[in-house]
Amino acid sequence: MHWFCTFNNFIQAILPPPEKLKLLVNYISPEAYSHISDCTTYDEAIRLLKSVYVKPKNIIFATHQLATLRQQPCESINAFIHALKLLSKDCEFKQIIADTYTEEAVRDAFITGTASPIIHQRLLEKDLLTLSEALQLARSLDTAQCNAEVYSLPLAPGCCILQLCSRNLCFYLQTAAVFAPTESTTHSAENPPADTPVLASVVIPRCSIMPDGNSTASLSSNTKVTDVRLPASLRPLHYQLQLQPFVRGNFSINGYVQVEVEVVTETSVFTLHMADIITHNETVKIVDARSAMEISILKQTYDNQRQFYHAHLQQPLTKGCRYVLSMEFTGYLNDQLYGFYRSSYTDSNGIKRWLAVTQFQPTDARRAFPCFDEPAMKATFEVFLARETDMSAVSNMPKINSRPIEGQQGWMWDHFNTSVPMSTYLVVFLVSDFRSKEVTTQNGVSFRTWARETAINQTNYSLEIGSKILTFFEDYFSIPYPLPKQDMVAIPDFASGAMENWGLITYKETSLFYDPKVSSAYSKQRVMKTVAHELAHQWFGNLVTPKWWTDLWLSEGFASFMVYVCIDHAEPEWQMMEQLIMMDLHKVFRFDCLESSHPISIPVAHPDEINKIFDTISYVKGASIIRMMKFFLTEATFRRGLTNYLKTKAYANAEQDDLWNFLTQAGHQDLTLGKCVTVKTIMDTWTLQMGYPVITVMRSADGASATVTQERFLLRKDPNSNDTHVYRWWVPLSHTTQATADFSKTAPSRWLSKTDSKITIRSLPNSSQWVIFNVQETGYYRVNYDENNWKQLIKQLKADHTKIHVNNRAQLIDDALNLARAGQLSYSLPMDLIAYLKSETSYTPWATALNNLAYIDKVFSRTGTYGSLKNFLLRLLGLQYKSIGFQDSLTDPHLDQHKRVKILSWACKLGHEDCVTQSVSLFNQWMMNPMNKSIISPNLKYVVYCTAIAAGKDKEWEFAWNQYLNSNVGSEKSRLLSALGCSRELWILSSSMFNNPNERLTRYLEMAFTKDTGIRKKDVVRVFHSVASNTVGKDLAWTFLRDQLDDIID
To answer: Where is the Aminopeptidase N-like N-terminal domain (predicted)?
Structure first.
């Protein structure tokens, strides 16, 4: 067993798993270290410290320097005491710290635990107000070298420490040696191997220690660099990765990487990405791939702001030749849900189980291994993952073989097949004790789902539909799935809904789990949408990848749109193309009408900018304009263009102009696009500028003609705006009339071009008949009419609404209410229009109306006129409530189930007597028999939970909280978390958790932002939203956010 494993317990003591103990361990007696290393959670360690080790005589871990420095003053003592108090939210422990840490003890601890004596002397010279100021100064100094001198510790040649104070890798070390696996040699603490790099800093700054022993500090700047793209001189071809994550140890990672590159232009600097990684400089080698001749490295540097590792070479690399860089390194399994991170769950026996998984998109592969972390730099990957024998490892490709790790009993290397060429953000690792289920698709692909053992049966639905969806996409694109297997895994801690890693898709549990006894129709639809979205990415995003994040929408927009195409084929009764109008189109309209919107294709550079564009515009506007494009090109032309694009660009990268070219070729061949027009001409107006138009149709007095104009639709026009851009689009115009009422002709009959200020449409019926533009709302625009046409449409809706297509009924409601909100219509018109809903039976018009009425409800909820609005809404809902009833049936049509939930949610919220009574009654029955999960229909659970908790007291809240803690179903836990925020009991929402009466933090919100309360980090937003959405909790949430913003950010 090599030295690292022999000293695992020692290092674990220095780097204990509980993040907040990284400071505490420096202030306790040496004998406490071994006990703390056995603690797997922060709470366990705190309990141990409180019961045994927090005593004045054991507080300081003294060094021989302490005696001479004991009497020196420390200006930052009070700040340091304050920081110690913040280490725990436990009031008892806070008091122990405050009582125990005398000024003298804190001064000594500050000296020995936070910085070397030399650095501390520098700290004393400053008037430091906060601990963060002290740490910032410490990081700016040569901490490692100073400590090496004071403690007479050797700094090994070539030791390189990179970015150790970044977001999650802030190791507080005394003395530790860390290096990647070497030969099977046993060493002792007293006799480490001679070539071991020693990390001798207590607080290590963001710096690189160079081979000559010099240190280069790289402090963060308030000004972000924008030139963060890698040099184009090297092109990666192949990686070999060996990673050993200590999932059950101190969460460190032993790593080794080999990357073969081709030289595009001659260069003397080998540059790649790296973050939160400790390199072992003496192991770095660069060799000629053909001759195996080693290239001499002059020095190694690190650019912290750009996250660049540089190897400066003695001679330039020759253009056209291939070279291989190899190095050993050490990484860290963080708890921030990105990079290579750790997650956990509690099994049926109450034992905490750990796992390691990755989330690399968009720029976090560099946190797991040094790499060329840009989407255009595709390469093949050969992966070796180390695991303990009772765990399993999964990666992008199938496993080839497993073998024991020499000298490490109980450990295995899993070797995976070499991947197809792919971007770094699609690489994936999973090391866990999960169980799996497997089927084989119609075309012979091995398809598996993975989950914790007690939840594996909740993946049955995902396994069934996933294998069918994969086959559907193979047929739709006429391109076989290129890998031999496809895995899907449910992760307990996962930041987004899912991630499309090629061959191993990772999901949040609620996005993959479905239990027919507990999960609602909405949950079932959500699971299918998420699975379809990620599987669509295997072609759009994985097979053909955007060249840079500017064209993220090419990946996310297509995947989002293909969801509806796929499910409409698999579940036609769900009417997904109808739902798209309400769920996507109207949703993105609400964001894209703001001056703060952005173009769908937007230049980005810095990782922070890249992360910001993973938003509704990229996903949903992308899907909406693709839908529009499909309709003006026709289905057949659209599919042919897509297939040609995917086949030609397979395993490569593309920009939006590449797609436009293939679709233009198909359109010209099929004569669905005029020869003088290109898709680029049309679509650039939708992707390169933000917003969308409102098309105004003003009919002549006799109605026979209409003038059509366009302008950007803005919800609120800022009179002080400095935006001088002239917004014009190529708009596909389609229309139908009362006489024909033909809603099947969705292809444009006319185009309103970018250069047209207005056009005239002729041959319309007389003014006593209506016209509707934007048939089935296939275009990405709103429509306003003259007053007479609006009145004719309202008249038709009230007489026989079925004569107008359901999509256009939803369109009329959404357009009218938003035009009124923007001041372009009087509110009397849309309120008159929605009166027809009393006879409407379809889901999407109702959902559209209620989604828009939520704004009006919010505006009036705290006014004296709210009673009138409430009565109006109850009358509007009355007939529907009687029609659908409170009794739910899972055999009802899918959209009827959706409509029932929507109507009942509003009825109960507005205080409908029967709705509230029935909800409270069902909840009370459940409280009497909590093991009976069938008392409340899965569809109605949230309505019942929220209504009963709002009407109830602390008893109902505590019952729901305990059900949340005990539930094993992700969708049920999410529902309960949201419902707990419905309480109207102020003591529940605002009772202090602390003894200090001034700390009036909201109870539920504080629980969400406190570690180990039972609420996972990924669910914090859900809790905050639930409280803020509550009329009673709105002000509390705002006060909490305002007062606790700094702590929340930290």
So the answer is: 236-426
- Residue 537, annotated ligand binder? yes
Q: Is the pLDDT assigned to residue 870 strictly greater than 70?
A: yes
Within 705-805, residue ranges assigned H as helices are 787-800
Q: d(Cα 850, Cα 837) in Å, to the nearest integer?
A: 11
Q: How far apart are the C-alpha atoms of 786 and 705, rounded to whole Å?
A: 12
556 is in an annotated binding site: yes
Cβ pair 826, 820 in contact under 8 A: yes
Distance CA 520, CA 318 (A): 61
Work out the angle between the directed axes of helices 656-670 and 622-633 (0-180°, nearest 10): 20
What six digits make up the tokens of 959?
């019952």
What are the contacts of 1003-1007 at 24+ separation with CB within 8 A? 1004/980, 1005/1036, 1005/1037, 1005/1040, 1006/89, 1006/1040
- Given a contact cutoff of 8 angstroms between Cβ atoms, the answer to whether 263 and 320 are in contact is yes
For residue range 491-513, what is the model confidence (pLDDT) as tens digits?
999 988 999 999 999 999 999 99
pLDDT score, position 1029: 86
Question: What is the predicted pLDDT for the residue at 107?
Answer: 39
Q: If you write DSSP's letter for every residue of 583-637 in order, what string do you get? A: IIIHHHHHHHTSTT---SS----SHHHHHHTSSHIIIIIHHHHHHHHHHHH-HHH
Nearest to 203 by CA among 143, 150, 161, 152: 143
The predicted model gives 100-111 an average pLDDT of 40
Rg (CA), the chain: 31
Reported confidence tier of residue 988, pLDDT bands at 50, 70, 90: low
Q: Which residues are catalytic, by number?
A: 534
pLDDT mean over 724-740? 96
Determine the Cα–Cα distance for residues 314 and 323; give it in Å rounded to an integer.
15
In the numeric block, the tokens 């020196």 are attached to 72
Return d(Cα 32, Cα 49) in angstroms, integer. 8
Decide if 42 contacts 90 (C-beta within 8 A): no
What is the per-residue pLDDT across 15-57, written as a single tens digit (0 to 9) for each? 333 333 333 333 333 344 344 444 444 444 444 444 433 333 2
8 A C-beta contact, residue 263 and residue 317? yes
Pairing of strands 544-546, 652-654: parallel
Q: 931-936 long-range contacts, Cβ below 8 Å, gap at least 24?
A: 933/517, 933/518, 934/517
Token pair belonging to 759: 């056009």
Helix (H) / strand (E) containing 299: strand 297-303
Whether residue 200 contacts residue 214, with contact meaning beta carbons closer than 8 Å, is answered with no
Residue in 356, 176, 369, 162 with CA at minimum distance from that of residue 256:
369
Mean pLDDT of 926-938: 92
Which residue, 471, 496, 593, 614, is CA-closest to 546? 614
Q: Cβ–Cβ contacts within 10 Å for residue 470, how many?
A: 21
Three-state SS at 423? coil
| 282 closest CA partner among 268, 272, 301, 297 | 297
Instruction: Name the pTM for this structure.
Output: 0.79
533 labelled binding-site residue: yes
The pLDDT mean for the chain works out to 81
Cα angle value 478/482/488 (rounded, 5°): 110
Phi-psi region of 299 (alpha: psi -120 to 50; beta: other; left: phi over 0): beta
Q: Is the pLDDT of residue 589 over 50?
A: yes
DSSP-assigned letters across all residues of 335-358: SSSSEEEEEEEE-TTS-EEEEEEE
In this prediction, residue 381 has a pLDDT band, given cuts at 50, 70 and 90, of: very high
How far apart CA 398 and CA 49 sit, in angstroms, is 46
| Helix, strand counts (H, E) of the chain | 38, 34
Give the whole-angstrom CA distance, residue 617 versus residue 597: 8
Q: Are 897 and 939 in contact (CB under 8 A)?
A: yes
- Which string of DSSP letters, residue by residue, matches 947-961? HHHHHS-HHHHHHHH
Phi, psi of 785 (to 5 degrees): -125, 170
